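If you are new to this repository, start here. Below is one unmodified record pulled from the training split, so you can see the exact layout before writing a loader.
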Amino acid sequence: MAKNKSYNRAYVILIAAIAAFGGLLFGFDTGVISGALLLIKDDPALVINGMEQLPERTQEWIVSITVLGAAVGALGSGRITDKLGRKKVLIIIAFVFALGSVGLAAANSVAALIIWRLIIGLAIGVASYTVPLYISEISPTHVRGALVSINQLAITVGIFASYLVDLGFANYPEGWRWMFLVGLVPSLILFIGMFFLPDTPRWLMSFKGEDKARKVLDRVGETNKEEVLQQIKTNIEKETRQQQSSWSILTAKWVRPTLIIGVGIMIFQQFVGINTIIYYSPTIFEMAGFGADSANAVYDAILPSLPIGAVNVIFTIVSIYLVDRWGRKPLLYLGMIGMVVALVALGIGFTFHDSIGGALKWISFVSMIIYIPFFAISLGPIAWLLISEVYPTKIRGLGMSLATMVNWAANFLIANTFLSLGKVTTGQMANPAGEGMLVNPGGAFFIYAAIGILGLIFVYSYIPETKGHSLEKIEEHFLAGKHPKDL
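And here is the target side for that same chain:
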């Protein structure tokens, strides 16, 4: 974080840290299924029609239904967030997270699992844009990038924590129930903590008046308080003059570039395949041969996911340090090039598995260890940061909810097709454990790499460099009809 300006550092970091428990829940509840799935698919109480394990399509739905719920939650709650305020919405979703954790732990059928995973998904969808929106609007300008990236750090911590929890309960009878129940703890922390935090000055200015907005800016120690207040007021007046309807503003000509930025960056964030790694890493490691000769196969397939989660956390911390120093676009270039290289390596490893034998385990492990840090310094935090920066104040919640809905829809498509896509493109491979056949995911990784190359072209052509610009200055740029790349 920059040190050349004074602000209420401790209070601002406390606000960001409490709100980021929404991000931690996002990460935990999306990541915990990776280990739980290995137990769920073989649980005699859940397996249907006398099969040995749940069919692949059923497994895909258990994983991906949360993502579908997130897409619905993201789209349906944007206007609620703009009307009720960022704070109240975070309190509501904390309660839903808590309820969902208990419901999943008590589920006694595949149908119940899917219903509760859908409910958790609704909360994840709202949290995934409300948390960065809240932090972005309440942060002083010169540390906004780093503070919003704390949310992405919390997501990675949640994912890593989910891997630890999965490993801890891997050998317990019905251990998947305890894996889900642990999510109750961060839910309660977010629920209680948000009661003691303020709403954002930009939302307060729009709906509660200047005095309340001023008080929050005083508390966070915004050094350019009067200038920020005036910019917020001016932009709200401009938006009001141009259009009365939030949906009309969203479709106005000067706002269209922000829609392209938000929708585009979210599509590429998902279509490079990040959530095949997050949701299916133990499954991928099982395909590659981890646990093939072990009596604790589930434990051994989950274990290599731990360094994946740890690297994700470490390099997200690196991104927090770099995002307000290097800028958004340089990190996007570096990260996307690295991801493409790692995905190509994964594709080659699985495609030629017959020739390389046992080396596939280590090719898959090393490739994923390379892939994760490049994602963690680039598309991981920066996609969420950009959508919290580019939309106009009056419809920032609505705009972010639309972009987030697209993100989750893309996520759903990836999560719901990974196993099927591998089967269609590169077929099946012999199970390293010696029993039956497994999907070969090599073709899926090649497709993700090709999309990564297209993403590089998009970043070069259309993504603005928002480093060092206030939210109001960014909005003025688009109001003037200028090209995003010219910021």
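Two things worth knowing about this chain: The beta strands are 428-430, 437-439. Residues 101 and 284 are 26 Å apart (CA to CA).
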